[in-house]
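Board notes (copied after class):
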Amino acid sequence: METLTWKQNKLYLIDQRKLPFKLEEVSCSNFREVARAIKVMKIRGAPALGIAAAYGMALAAISSRAKNYYKFIKDMEIARNYLANSRPTAVNLFWAIERIMKLIMVNQGLDVFRLKELVVQEARRIEKEDREINQEIGRIGAELIKNSNNILTHCNAGSLATAGYGTALGVIRTAFFQGKRIHVYVDETRPLLQGARLTTWELMQDKIPCTLITDNMAGYLMWKKRIDLVIVGADRIARNGDVANKIGTYSLGVLARENSIPFYIAAPLSTIDLSLSSGEEILIEERDPQEITHILGKQIAPSGVKVFNPAFDITPHNYVRGIITEKGIIKSPFPRSIESLFGKESRETRL
């Protein structure tokens, strides 16, 4: 599935707000349109946001009328700031933007035309790398899944959240395509129903057996011994292993530990934010109250009711069995394991 596509200097996206009822593609011809698509959640999912932001920077580069490096970098900084203000929690968005900016600064001796080419090439490279990374996460994570396992997942960490294969769903897909007999329980994921609308749709496209449940049914299924493991994605992971993911993830972590069920995170290394020592430092996005008071445009709550709508929560690292990455499964003690994986970069960031 092509969640996003770069064609003829335009970015085309599947409008995920319309799924599963309508498969509609929208185009973005400038970085402001990309930022708007991110903000209103035409596109979502941490890795996909990073790729979209990279292409937003590519569109900014293409449209720049600068004749020299200094004017060009100024145009790119405007785009960087605009895109960075679209959504605050998923670190991949900022990681991709800064990767583009670093590329420009390292190559400031080149002419503007060549710099534009490099930015577009880097955005395409980020997309290509994400596809490869997801395949590797799937291969590594599938080893955790056994025949006849029932897997619980939350929100959508599939093709629609990445360049096209998925993190948590990539693990599930790989296990299924290996011939393992598995079944997936899918949390509906209120308030925007990414599980009900998107994850079930993806699983059914691949003919992977699945059952949709409401968010508050998960604990009962665990108590009934009908869940063997939980696999979810992540939007940002602190240096100590604390995880920011879609609201409701923390509850699953607590319930899984209470019921002695392994709880895994599947995410690329780019989701780990070495600058943050713990989840308490992660900025949690709060979204429009109407997302809770309405479902698919229909009002379900009294007018004027007070609403609290954080898009994410923090799952402390002690609830996490392991973090499935393209370089292997990171396990407790997470600070030491993450530092060992990142090496010098981790130590320099901490200082």
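Comment from the instructor: The chain has two domains: 4-135, 139-350. Residues 112-142 form the longest helix (31 residues).
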